[in-house]
Amino acid sequence: MSTGRESRERPRRTAATALGAVGVAAATAGLALDGPTWLGLAGVALGGLFLFGTPVLAVVFGQIALVAVDAPSLLALLLVEGGLLVVLLAGAVGTPDGRAAGGLAALVVPLLGGLCWLSVGRWTLDPLPVGTAMVTGVAVVGYLLHRYLLIDLGVVTDEQVTESENT
Questions:
Q1: Contact 45, 61 (CB under 8 A)
Q2: Contact present, 89 and 59 (Cβ < 8 Å)
Q3: Shortest CA distance to 111 belongs to which of 138, 71, 74, 75?
Q4: Does residue 49 lie within any of the structural domains?
Q5: Is 1 helix (H, G, I), strand (E, B) or coil?
Q6: Is residue 90 within 8 Å of residue 19, measured between CB atoms?
Q7: CA-to-CA distance for 14 and 126, rounded, in angstroms?
Q8: Are 142 and 149 in contact (CB under 8 A)?
Q9: Measuring CA to CA, which residue among 92, 97, 33 is closest to residue 65?
Q10: In a domain, 62, yes or no
Q11: What is the dihedral of CA 12, 13, 15, 16, to 10 degrees?
Q12: Residue 130 lies in a domain
């Protein structure tokens, strides 16, 4: 016997898969636009990671494939970053609280993609310090979000946090 919860989750997963397929197609088109034609095969891996892995793994792979394009045009960059944003949003739609996760993904991905494009493409900064700064920034924000969620979920109380800081 099917419950109401299972029937609500099935359309959510179907919509997330369809949305993710659109994102994978856009990212693949952007990769094949400015890169060698064999880079279009990265779309197959991107789709496989989205379907059988997690959307975050697919986005990470897409970002690595974008680096392989060397100096993409603005159109290719918009296609790839937009497609990867849609892939992340598709993963967020499939979660129980999709609005919060979707809002976070919709804010962070274009911000990081734009910062990368400005830093490496327009300001001609060295990619290693830019990447290091971005990874450090994401790690700090991720840690702070993790700590906030621990307190918000009640796993760690405010009193436990202040006690550990005093010792």
A1: yes
A2: no
A3: 138
A4: yes
A5: coil
A6: yes
A7: 42
A8: no
A9: 33
A10: yes
A11: 110
A12: no
Q: Which helix (DSSP H) or strand (DSSP E) does residue 110 occupy?
A: helix 98-116
Q: Do the Cβ atoms of 76 and 65 come closer than 8 Å? A: no
- 57 contacts: CB under 8 Å, gap ≥ 6: 49
Residue 30: domain span: 4-105
pTM value? 0.59
129 assigned to some structural domain: no
Total domains in the chain come to 1
| Rounded Cα distance, 105 and 47, in Å | 19
- Quick one: how many helices (H) and strands (E) in the chain? 7, 0
Give me the tens of pLDDT residue by residue for the chain, a chain 167 residues long.
Answer: 445 455 555 565 677 788 889 999 998 888 888 777 777 788 888 888 888 988 888 888 888 887 776 767 778 888 888 898 888 888 777 666 655 666 666 667 667 777 777 777 777 777 778 777 777 877 787 787 777 777 777 777 766 666 666 66
